[in-house]
Design brief:
Number of helices: 9
Structural class: alpha/beta
CATH topology: Rossmann fold
CATH class: Alpha Beta
Number of strands: 8
Radius of gyration: 18 Å
Oligomer: single chain
Largest sheet: 8 strands, mixed
Shape: globular
CATH architecture: 3-Layer(aba) Sandwich
Helix content: 25-40%
Distance between the termini: 35 Å
Number of domains: 1
């Protein structure tokens, strides 16, 4: 059985509409305003302060804004490249620096988060191209691929897998390992869990259709760089995939883990009972989030010794 604290926190998130004095949960449809959504997320995120043990350094990589998140005693020459989530339409260094700081501090890794281009202004393949550009920049700076771990949550988890496939297609050296928290891997959103977990998860109803379509923008959803479920994973480094059994992306996580395993990849698939989308980022609010976050950090640590 899930903990009382997890039920409390997840229940509050699922019923967040009540805090805005709305009787019904939000439903995302064609009237959805991306601009207003981004503003609200940024407004709440900018207030969060990082631990005193963390320093930051804002940089520009070409036209991409990025930020180093640096713990006091980082491992020498080891890097975490974090790809933020946000449904392909939102998210930034502002919204995710607090999450990346948790990884940086726990793993003692110099960590990089960056602002890839977002839909609808920039649809597929813009985000993937930016991920590749940032990775190439790291290599150009002298960081060795075997000293880099890549990971992300939600859309960032999808882009983590897309990045690996894109690097392989370009015959570039691959990172040491990668973790993917709650990825959507078939962007047609046709997996059954989008139906049977629609009311169990914390994602706004309809968001997976509207937001994803803004990113797809008429492209073929069978393209592996768009829907990494359809990729060839032969030669891909070890993968850690995390999912909650109450999330809409559950089947996508299980399916891509099966595909990668069939190609010979060392895959760790962790399914957490009664947990929702990207719940490890809710650490330290409840025990399951702390434990899942710790497992991911252990995976990172094992590949950055």
């Amino acid at each position: 059985m899930s903990s009382f604290r997890s039920r409390l926190v997840i229940g509050m998130i699922k019923n967040r509409h009540l805090f805005s004095f709305q009787l019904k949960p939000e439903v995302v449809d064609e009237s959805f305003s991306v601009e207003k959504f981004r503003e609200s997320v940024d407004k709440s995120s900018i207030k969060v302060k990082l631990p005193k043990s963390i320093s930051t350094q804002k940089i520009s990589i070409g036209e991409i804004n990025a930020e180093w998140i640096i713990p006091q005693h980082p491992k020498k020459d080891k890097i975490l490249l974090y790809i933020h989530g946000g449904g392909f339409i939102s998210g930034s260094t502002i919204t995710h620096r607090m999450h990346v700081a948790k990884f940086a501090e726990r793993c003692q890794l110099k960590s990089l988060v960056f602002d890839y281009r977002l839909a609808p202004e920039h649809s597929f393949p813009a985000a993937t191209e930016d991920c590749v550009a940032i990775y190439k920049w790291l290599l150009d700076q002298g960081y060795k691929s075997q000293n880099v771990v890549v990971g992300g949550e939600s859309a960032g988890a999808t882009l983590t897998l897309s990045l690996l496939l894109a690097l392989k297609a370009e015959h570039l050296s691959l990172p040491k390992a990668a973790f993917s928290i709650s990825p959507v891997t078939d962007l047609s959103c046709s997996a059954k869990s989008f139906e049977y977990n629609a009311k169990n998860d914390v994602a706004p109803m309809g968001s997976w259709t509207v937001w994803t379509n803004l990113y797809i923008s008429g492209n073929d959803t069978k393209n592996p760089l768009l829907s990494p479920l359809f990729g060839n994973y032969e030669g891909i480094p070890p993968l850690y995939i995390c999912a909650g059994t109450h999330e809409i992306h559950l089947d996508d996580c299980v399916n891509v883990a099966g595909v990668a395993t069939a190609y010979g990849v060392d895959v760790t698939l962790r399914k957490w009972d009664n947990m929702v989308h990207a719940f490890p980022l809710l650490t330290p609010l409840f025990p399951e989030a702390r434990e899942a976050f710790g497992e991911i950090c252990d995976f990172i640590a094992n590949h950055t010794k």
